[in-house]
Write a structure and sequence with these properties.
Elements: H1 8-14, H2 18-29, E1 44-47, E2 52-55, E3 61-63, H3 77-89, H4 96-103, H5 107-125, E4 133-141, E5 157-165, E6 170-177, H6 183-193, E7 199-203, E8 216-220, H7 227-230, H8 232-249, H9 257-268, H10 277-287
Parallel strand pairs: 4-7, 7-8
Antiparallel strand pairs: 1-2, 2-3, 4-5, 5-6
Helix pairs in contact: 3-5, 3-10, 4-5, 5-9
Length: 294
Amino acid sequence: MKMPEASFFEWQGQFNSETDCLNHIKKMRWPNGFMCPRCGCEHAYELTTRQLYECSQCHKQTSVTADTLFHGSRIPLTKWFWAIYFLGSDKGSISALRLSKLIDVNWRTARLVLSKLRTAMGHRDSLYRLSGVIEIDDALVGGKRKGKRGRGAAGKTPVLVAVESKGKKAGFIAMQAVNRVCHDNVEQFVAKHLTIQQEVHKDGLPALNIIDKTQQHEARVTPSELVDEWLPWVHIAIGNLKAFLLGTFHGVTGKFLQEYLNEFCYRFNRRQMEREIPNRLLNLAIIHAPVHSH
């Protein structure tokens, strides 16, 4: 579904107050008017002082933000909406420190908002399954300690990467941080992100051989100078990911890495509709179940 594009000034004009934000959520959640989540009744009393609707049939009280990403949040909706705009509109992403200054909240609050949004991004993309010709490889990401390069490098987190190869362009992408590249983790990654019996290209790493159980895979032990011919898109994706992490976050620790992978993939998978991302992300926040902080 095509979503409207959003400029800074349009967003500012559209979501200028708490009432503007509440009315937008109401319109998106109940396009045909209120509907009780418990009994489906379409009639309610509006308790304006508490911003609640009480069903006239079963008397369940429902807030406009109940069962959305905003559920139970004490952060003003205007700040949420602006966080969504800043995160969605900048393809280089935004750090919690920068967001905290832009929407005037402390770092911890900004970090929480971004964490919830990135978790929702990951859930949204987990609905897709990659198909066709798929390239799979692993990468080592992050780490703040200096140490040896390559496999087993100190403080780095392994990431499994899969990309649809569409010839002269890449299709959809999936990435998952793992504690190590082993049969179990590879098998779970493939089951979660790939349609079965696809043509999969990979290098000669033995841990990836488990792919053979559900896919038509071909492995090649590839010298470094030929790797871009056999796995071109997966290596471009890994290079772009590392630039993304270094550019905005100056590296990242393993604890939060999956959230950044979620954002990178969400953005990559919508690169043809870049200007729609703020509205897509806002819509996702409205239809997504609450995400509990951790």
